[in-house]
Amino acid sequence: MAVTDAQNPLLGETTCGTLLQKLQEIWDEVGESDEDRDKMLIQIEQECLDVYKKKVEQATKSRAQLLEALSDARIELARLLSALGEKCFAGFPEKASGTIKEQLAAIAPILEQLWEQKAERVKEFSDVQTQIQKICGEIAGNLNINDNPTVDDADLSLKKLDEYHAQLQELQKEKSDRLHKVLEFVSCVHDLCAVLGMDFFSTVTDVHPSLNDSTGMQSISNDTLARLAKTVLALKEEKKQRLHKLQELANQLMDLWNLMDTPMEERKLFDHVTRNMLASVDEVTVPKALALDLIEQAEVEVERLDLLKASRMKEIAFKKQAELEEIYAHAHVEIAPDVAREKIMALIDSGNVEPAELLADMDNQISRAKEEGLSRKEILDKVEKWMSACEEESWLEDYNRDENRYNASRGAHLNLKRAEKARILVNKIPALVDTLVAKTRAWEEDRGIQFAYDGVPLLAMLDEYAMLRQEREEEKQRMRDQKKFHEQQSTEQEASFGSRPSPARQVSTKKVAGSRANGGANGTPSRRLSLNAHQNGSRSATKDGRRDNRLSGPAGPVNYVSISKDDAASHVSGTDTATASP
């Protein structure tokens, strides 16, 4: 074998055969015995065997290491696939094939790729968990969370990552809702502080320092939301109380201004107070509309006006008394104003009554007087119609008595139209009187008191008017009969003695003028009825004069005075003279 190797021309390098050949040449030259040569060859063969054994052992050990590395690689591959939630890796065969090194060469890039994928997945998990931890901390009220979350690398599957993402989305939505609530509360606090004139920043900072706009993160914890809600409720209650207080002060100011006739220039100084008199809590949005200094200013003004009112108490009381008298005068209710004013003076001078109580009592009297005037209004309106109809009746009597009423003088056509309307109105007087009597009796039965018109019982006035109207009709009938009788006498005289002028016609004219001056000869009622038949004693000239004036309250039909029997006879006599003349 060695000779063959030595003779091999293809071997250009030193081989075992060439070395053995060289060794034999040396032995031949030295003259080594065959025994020594065999020993030497045996030794060489043993040494060669030892080297092979050593190499085999090394190879075996290397193979074992490669198998262990392959096993570890396969285990790592399985672990990575499990952690990443993958069943297998695309392109990698499930069954082993090829040499160990080929298998290791095939699995190595897969592991590298999976490690990179794991690192990216860990980063994704870390980011999601960091955000979840941060939001949870914000909800819990812990804004200073700096610890990085621990990622469980045993489960890095996409399913687990999706669960974390879903949790993150829910937390983000909750955070958004909470942040929206916080912003609503903060905005409400801002508006309320503006209306109340309070410092907004100090108010929200007391709730939580992060609510200040200068900070980058705002607390959305349950505690912050609860404290914000409590702050808003407290501010709303404060706004409600201040508005109520301000409205009370505004009402007091208005009452005092009206009471003392305060000029508009002074009232305008407190427009910011009175403009919210009727406003609701939600309608008040003007900044500083309910500031404490504004309320204090209104309180000071009310105190000042109260002091001023006390000093002007008599003037104010007399003003209310004048208002009361005006109401009663308009309602034609007779009162004793002088006595009332003396009583007011005595009460104020004595100091036994509080000014506010006195004014309140007078306000009650004014309210009762208005109610009484309202209950009398319908009857008083009909009384005015009745008196106006009586005035037209009186004018119609005078118009019918005028012998020149049909002459073509200036304004004759207007008088003619008025006479036509007056006749229609006069025909309605009986029905008007009946209605007035019925309503007056119903009013008296309802209230149990007598209906007086400027101190005179209205039913008595109506009864007397009806009686006098009847007497007037009877008197007219007598005058017509008497005139007919005198005309017949005059006709007989003319037939016996002839016609001659009558000297009595001038006297007749004077009588007619006198009767017009008296205003009662025609039987038409006047503004002041004489009620001596119904009253005990006569009334004073002052009261009669006041009732004669229609503006201060007429008390009876127009142009009527009582006609005694002597006056009626005199009027009839004068008429007879006038009618007897041919």
UniProtKB/TrEMBL annotation:
Coiled coil: 49-83, 154-181
Predominant location: cytoplasm
Spans annotated as Disordered: 472-582
Localization: Cytoplasm, Cytoskeleton; Nucleus
CC per GO annotation: cytoplasm; microtubule; nucleus; spindle
Pfam family, one: MAP65_ASE1
InterPro entries: MAP65_Ase1_PRC1
Basic and acidic residues composition bias: residue spans: 472-489, 541-550
One GO molecular-function entry: microtubule binding
UniProt KW keywords: Coiled coil, Cytoplasm, Cytoskeleton, Microtubule, Nucleus, Phosphoprotein
Ranges of compositional bias, category Polar residues: 523-540, 572-582
Single Gene Ontology BP annotation: cytokinesis by cell plate formation
Family stated for the protein in its record: Belongs to the MAP65/ASE1 family.
Name by which UniProt lists this protein: 65-kDa microtubule-associated protein 1-like
Organism (species): Populus euphratica
Taxonomic lineage: Eukaryota, Viridiplantae, Streptophyta, Embryophyta, Tracheophyta
Encoding gene per record: LOC105113224
